[in-house]
C-alpha cells in the first residue's frame, strides 16, 4: 500500500491522513466545490475535485470517487465514517477496480446494515436482543397493530437501513402508530433508499453502551473495551466516555464477550462497533446494532488503550497479522470526548452555519483536539455541522471531567453559535459528575443545560 485515497472530508479525512503518514503511506484527498481550500485537502499529498457542494453529487458519487482514485494513483480506499463507509456496493466497486478496500467484507456490511438481519445474526451468536417486529414495508402494514401489540408499548419505529439516530421515532399508543410508521417509512425511503421499518421494544430509562471490536477476517476477533454514549440529543451522541460509569464489571465483561463473539461468528474483518441498549435500572443489556466502520468516537478507545485504531485498519488492509498486538491490549484511566457542533442548543439544537471568524483551540497534556477546520473556514449547510472533537484523558473519571472542562473553557469560537457552553453545563451537572447518565439526561435537564431562547 503506497497511496490511500480517503473517500471523505473534514475531521475524519484529516485523521486518516495522519494515520497514513505515520505508516509511510501517502494520502490522496477528494473535495467538493465547498471544500476546495479545506484542511484535509491541504494536508494530503494529492487531491482532486469530484463535484459540487451537494453531497449527492460529490462525496456520494461513487464513479467520481473511483475515477479520482485511478487518476491520483491510489492503490487503496479508506471510506472514513458516514457517506459511503457502510455501502456494500461501493466496497465491491473498489475491489473490482483492483484497489484495496480498507474496511470489512461487503457481505458483512450488508448483513449488519440490514437491522433485522443483524438482530437475527446476533441472536444466533448468543447475544441478547430486544423484542421486536418483522420488517414492515410500505405496502405491507396489514398486521401492523398486531405486531405492535406483540412488541409492547412504548416502542420505537426504526428504519431498517437507518443509523446514527436517523429514522427513529417513539410511539406510546396505538392511536399514534400508523401515522408515525408511515411518516418514518417516507423519511427512510428519501434518506436511505429503503422505506422498510421495524418495531422495537423501548426501554424507558436506557443507557447506550458500545464495544469496540477488531476482527482479522478469519474467525479471530478481539474487543478493545467499552464506550458509554448515553449523553445524547435527538438520539445522537454528544459526549462519549470510557469506562462506562457505574456499570458492574461483570456486565461490561459479558457485553464485551458478546460483541467479540458476534464479530468472530461473522469472520468480521477490521474495526467495528457493537452497540447495546442497557436498562439503567436492571443492568440488562440488549443488542442494538453493529456499525461496520470506524466510529466518530473512536479516539475515546485510543486514549484509554494507547492503540491507533485507524493505523490498525490500514495495517490489516496491507496484510499484517495483528493478533499478537490485539491480544495484549489493556485499558488505563478514563477518557471523555465532547463533540463541538455549530448548533444552537437554545433553539432545539438547530444547525448554525457560518464562518469561523475566531477559532482558538485548547492544548495541554492528555488533551486531543481533532478537527478539519481552522479560523476563516466556513461551516456550510451542506454537511454535518460538527466542528471538532475534544478528547481528554485522566487517571480517574473526575480528573478527566476537570480536564475536559478546562479545555472547553479554553476553546473560543466567534462568527457562529456553538454548543460549547451546553457541553460545559452537561459535564458540570451533578448527575453527570456522579455517573448517572442515560439517554434522557439532556431532555430531563434541558432547562438547566440549555434554557430556551426568549
Automatic annotation (TrEMBL):
It is an enzyme of class 6 (ligase). This is Biotin carboxylase. Residues 1-447 form the Biotin carboxylation domain. Keywords: ATP-binding, Biotin, Ligase, Nucleotide-binding. GO terms for molecular function: ATP binding; biotin carboxylase activity; metal ion binding. InterPro entries: ATP-grasp, BC-like_N, Biotin_carboxylase_complex, Biotin_carboxylation_dom, Biotin_COase_C, CPAse_ATP-bd, PreATP-grasp_dom_sf, Rudment_hybrid_motif. PANTHER family: CARBOXYLASE:PYRUVATE/ACETYL-COA/PROPIONYL-COA CARBOXYLASE, PTHR18866:SF127. Transmembrane segments: none annotated. It comes from the Bacteria. Its EC number is 6.3.4.14. Residues 119-318 form the ATP-grasp domain.
Amino acid at each position: 500500500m503506497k497511496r490511500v485515497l480517503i473517500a471523505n472530508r473534514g475531521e475524519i479525512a484529516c485523521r486518516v491522513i495522519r494515520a497514513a503518514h505515520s505508516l509511510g503511506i501517502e494520502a490522496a484527498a477528494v473535495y467538493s466545490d465547498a471544500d476546495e481550500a479545506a484542511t484535509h485537502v491541504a494536508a494530503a499529498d494529492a487531491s482532486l475535485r469530484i463535484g459540487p457542494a451537494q453531497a449527492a453529487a460529490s462525496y456520494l458519487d461513487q464513479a467520481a470517487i473511483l475515477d479520482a482514485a485511478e487518476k491520483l494513483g491510489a492503490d487503496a480506499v479508506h471510506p472514513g465514517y458516514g457517506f459511503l463507509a457502510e455501502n456494500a456496493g461501493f466496497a465491491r466497486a473498489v475491489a473490482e477496480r483492483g484497489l484495496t478496500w480498507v474496511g470489512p467484507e461487503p457481505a458483512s456490511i450488508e448483513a449488519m446494515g440490514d437491522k433485522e438481519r443483524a438482530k437475527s445474526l446476533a441472536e444466533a451468536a448468543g447475544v441478547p436482543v430486544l423484542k421486536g417486529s418483522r420488517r414492515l414495508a410500505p405496502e405491507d402494514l396489514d398486521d401492523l397493530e398486531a405486531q405492535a401489540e406483540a412488541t409492547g408499548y412504548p416502542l420505537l419505529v426504526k428504519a431498517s437501513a437507518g443509523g446514527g439516530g436517523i429514522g427513529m421515532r417513539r410511539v406510546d399508543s396505538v392511536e399514534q402508530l400508523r401515522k408515525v410508521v408511515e411518516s418514518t417509512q417516507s423519511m427512510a425511503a428519501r434518506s436511505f433508499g429503503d422505506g422498510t421499518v421495524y418495531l422495537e421494544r423501548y426501554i424507558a430509562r436506557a443507557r447506550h453502551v458500545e464495544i469496540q471490536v477488531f476482527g482479522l477476517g478469519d474467525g479471530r476477533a478481539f474487543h478493545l473495551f467499552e464506550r458509554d454514549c448515553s449523553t445524547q440529543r435527538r438520539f445522537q451522541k454528544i459526549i462519549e466516555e470510557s469506562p462506562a460509569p457505574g456499570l458492574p464489571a461483570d456486565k461490561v465483561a459479558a457485553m464485551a464477550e458478546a460483541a467479540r463473539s458476534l464479530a468472530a461468528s461473522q469472520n468480521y474483518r477490521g474495526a467495528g462497533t457493537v452497540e447495546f441498549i442497557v436498562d439503567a435500572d436492571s443492568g440488562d443489556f440488549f443488542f442494538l446494532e453493529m456499525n461496520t466502520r470506524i466510529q466518530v468516537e473512536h479516539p475515546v478507545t485510543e486514549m484509554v488503550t494507547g492503540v491507533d485504531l485507524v493505523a490498525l485498519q490500514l495495517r490489516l488492509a496491507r496484510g499484517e497479522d495483528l493478533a499478537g498486538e490485539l491480544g495484549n491490549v489493556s485499558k488505563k484511566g478514563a477518557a471523555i470526548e465532547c463533540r463541538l457542533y455549530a448548533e444552537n442548543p437554545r433553539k432545539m439544537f438547530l444547525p448554525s452555519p457560518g464562518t469561523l471568524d475566531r477559532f482558538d483551540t485548547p492544548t495541554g497534556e492528555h488533551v486531543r483536539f481533532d478537527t478539519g477546520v481552522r479560523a476563516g473556514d466556513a461551516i456550510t449547510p451542506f454537511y454535518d455541522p460538527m466542528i471538532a472533537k475534544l478528547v481528554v484523558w485522566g487517571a480517574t473519571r473526575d480528573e478527566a471531567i476537570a480536564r475536559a472542562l478546562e479545555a472547553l473553557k479554553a476553546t473560543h469560537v466567534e462568527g457562529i453559535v456553538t454548543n460549547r457552553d451546553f457541553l460545559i453545563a452537561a459535564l458540570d451537572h451533578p448527575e453527570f459528575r456522579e455517573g448517572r447518565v442515560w439517554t434522557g439526561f439532556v431532555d430531563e435537564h434541558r432547562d438547566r443545560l440549555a434554557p430556551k431562547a426568549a
